[in-house]
Predict the 3D structure of the following.
Amino acid sequence: SSSVNWPPEFRPGEPWKGYPNI
Amino acid sequence: QEPLTASMLAAAPPQEQKQMIGERLYPLIHAMHPMLAGKITGMLLEIDNSELLLLLESPDSLHSKIEEAVAVLQAHQA
C-alpha cells in the first residue's frame, strides 16, 4: 500500500496496530 | 526470554501471537537498525507466523530478511 502510515510501526509493550488487517 | 515455540504460539489468540513474535523480533532488529526497528518489525510481522518462527531460529536468514525490508522501506520513503 502506498499510504503514509505504512508499515504499521511496532513498539514493544504496545499492541501492534498492524493486526488484523494483514 | 525463553525461545518462542509453535506450541506457545498456538496457545495464544492471533493478536497475541503477533505481539509475542514482535516482542522477540524487535530487539534483534533494533540491534541492526535502531532508527527503523519499529517500522521494520511492523513489516516483518506481516509475514506468516510459521515463517517468522523459522526466522527467529536462523540469524542469517533473519538478517537478510531485515536488510531486504530496510531496502523496501527506504524505497517506499523515497
In short: Chain A touches chain B through 15 residues (CB under 8 Å). DSSP finds no helices and no strands in chain A. The mean pLDDT of chain A is 84.
